[in-house]
Structures are given as structure tokens and as C-alpha cells.
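Q: What changes when adenosine-5'-diphosphate is included in the input?
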Amino acid sequence: MSVPAIRVADVSKRFRLYHERNQSLKASVMRGRRARYEEFWALKDVTFDIPVGSTFGLIGENGSGKSTMLKCMARILRPDKGSISLEGKMSALLELGAGFHPELSGRENVYLNGAILGLSKKQLMSRFDEIVDFAGIEQFIDSPVKNYSSGMYVRLGFSVAINVDPDVLLIDEVLAVGDADFQRKCAEKIAEFRAQGKTIVIVSHSLPSVRTLCDEVALLEHGELRDLGPAPAVIDHYLADAFSDRSDEGGHPRWGSGEVRIEAAEIIDADGRSGARVRTGDPVTLRFHYVAKEPVANVMFGMAIETVAGAEVTGPNTRDGGLTCDRVVGKGFVDFRIPRLMLLGGTYDVTAAVYSADGLHPFDHVPHVLRFDVDQGDPHEENGIVSLGGTWEGEALRALGMRERAG
Ligand SMILES: Nc1ncnc2c1ncn2[C@@H]1O[C@H](COP(=O)(O)OP(=O)(O)O)[C@@H](O)[C@H]1O
Ligand SMILES: [Mg+2]
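A: The predicted holo structure follows.
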């Protein structure tokens, strides 16, 4: 095994909350005369390794200790117990404005920050234009940063952090602040870093971006490590825990905040019969019945089809279909119409989902809401899950007779 880029070993971090005012006599007696503060553990015995070259996500509710962990990695805070080792040159983009001096200009802050992050004056001079250009703040570079918008702060901070050419890059939340154009530039830069084999640690509340960007994820809860593993698995568990409706079937918990709920799903054949057996090649409709007690704006419907072994065959949604749903209220349904069912003979499970239009918030996610069987039809193929509807051609080929075909 190679040495990890970052090794977090039994890290605990304590803060003291000082009580200065409005103490009742009873409270101070209870605490004893000397205890003017309460101890509070923001991190408790957290252990994990981050492999070199991986992109690692830290997720968890507000106050769960993500920023504290990142500051410990950046050596801005010192753990009270345990240790953190970090291989290579580190650069950090922490909370908004951290590391900037408000009275100094953007230019002065670039030089100051660059120096702190280990760039020589010569290196800084040669990269200065690129830094300012990436941040897109040429006109403001000589104004004090206290006059900057939060977006400008973040752009400049990110630009400095990536231009010092670190081996390990730590990023806290901030990327969500910039506009779409800047976010795209950051995503490209992060992809470039990944390709160069650099190690990246990202704190973010945007689960979709953590899911796409990160290899592995750690979930913190009240300062403790709750879960650790591949990004999709940890995020799915987290969502399932955060929103689960435990009254549902054991192995496949339903989750979501419930403003819109999927009430039922049905499979409908060409003659409009519900629950009929269908065959490969048939026109089929999957219908999802929903209910929303109050009006809900900006909704996205989606579904997935899995084999009984759990392989996802397809997972379309209304957004990918080029549609928006500005408002739902009361009862209704949406249909997914399949002109020609290309699933081969077998049994399949359907998952239904209603999310906010940006895909961030689950209203209802119902694994295995419906199971259906497909009988052999046309195309008639034995192997695999789907037919691609392809045809064979070749000079040596001739058509089979009916009798040969059946054998
Ligand atoms: N300097 C500090 N002094 C006292 N408490 C702090 C300090 N920094 C963070 N905390 C507390 O530690 C907990 C974890 O904070 P933080 O790491 O910022 O969480 P997150 O980034 O996950 O939202 C919170 O309860 C927060 O109030
Ligand atoms: Mg934070």
C-alpha cells in the first residue's frame, strides 16, 4: 500500500464556549465556581485515509464538523487528540474571505496569500496575470477587498489556491457562491487537477456535485464519522437516513420530505390494460400516480428500471426528457411512454422518484414501487437484458426457415 495523501488518525477537536453574561446563580453553582466555560467536542475520534490522487468529499449537516476538519487538515487548527499527516504541498480555500485582509487591495492579497502558500515573488509575478484573469476581476484588482462581493472574494481565493500548484487542494463549500460560468471554470479546473493525479478534499452541501466529483465520501454527524466509502453508497445511505419513512418495506426504504408523494405505479399495455403481461417489442406505458396536498413548484419526475439482481437498466427523468414541471397540486399522474419495449424476457423492478427541479431535494423516492414481467417477443434474443434492435449482415448469411428458427 502506498502512503495516503492525508491520514486522519483519532482526531478530536474541542472548543470552549465561554459564558460571560446572564448566568443564573443556580447554573454557576451547578458548574462549580471555576467553570466559566463549557467544553464542546466538534470532532470526536475521527479516523480515515485519503489516497493520493483521489477526490474526497466531506458531507454532513450544518455544525457537524466539516469545516473544523478541513481547518485541522490545513493546520489552521490543531487537534486536541490524534494527528493528521499530509503528504506534499497543500493549498486551501477555506470559508469565505478566510486569509484575506479586508483593508488590502486584491493585488496585495494575491501577493500575501501566494507568499503564505509558498510561492516566491518571482513565481507570483509570472502567475499574477493568470490568477487575476481566472478570477475575472481585472478592474477591481487595486480596490480593497472589503469592497468585493462574495462572488469576487471566492473567485480570487480559488484562483490563488489553484495557481500555487499544490499536490493537495482543500476546498470548503465556497464554490457554490460563484455564478454558473465561474462554477463551470472551477469544475474544469478540478477535473484538470484530478487528471494530474492531485488529491482534492471538497466540503459541500451539494450532494449531486459531490456524487459526480468525488471518489470517496466521509459523512460526519455531530463530530463523529458516521459513514465512509464510495460516494454513491454513502450519499444514498445519507439520503435514506435523512428522509426515510421506516414504515415501508424493509430492504428498500422509501425516502423524501413528502410534499409530493408517489401513490402508485402501473404498467399499461397498448390496449390500455393495467398490469397486463407485456412482451419484448410491445408499446408500453409506465404510469406514476402522485399527490401533493399543497401546491409545489419546480418538480422533476424520474424513474429507474432494474433487474431483480439489482442492475440499473435505465433511469430517465423529465429534465433529461427536456421537460419542466412548474407546479403540481392535488392528485395526478405522469406517464413514461415506451414506443417499443427493448427489455428481453425477465422480471424487472421499477423505482419512482419526485425531486426538486435541480435534483437536490427528494420529495419522494420509492424503490421498487412496481415489479413486472416481460415475455419473449420480437426481437427474439436469448442473452442479456436489452435488445439494441440491431441486425446481422454478411455475404455468408442466409435467412433461417421457420422450422430451423424454432429449434
Ligand atoms: N472557533 C469555534 N469556537 C467554538 N465553536 C466552534 C468554533 N468553530 C466551530 N465551532 C462549532 O463546532 C461545530 C462544528 O462547526 P463546523 O466545523 O463549522 O461545522 P460545519 O462546517 O460542518 O457546518 C459547530 O457546532 C460550531 O458552532
Ligand atoms: Mg462549514
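Observations recorded in class: The mean pLDDT is 86.
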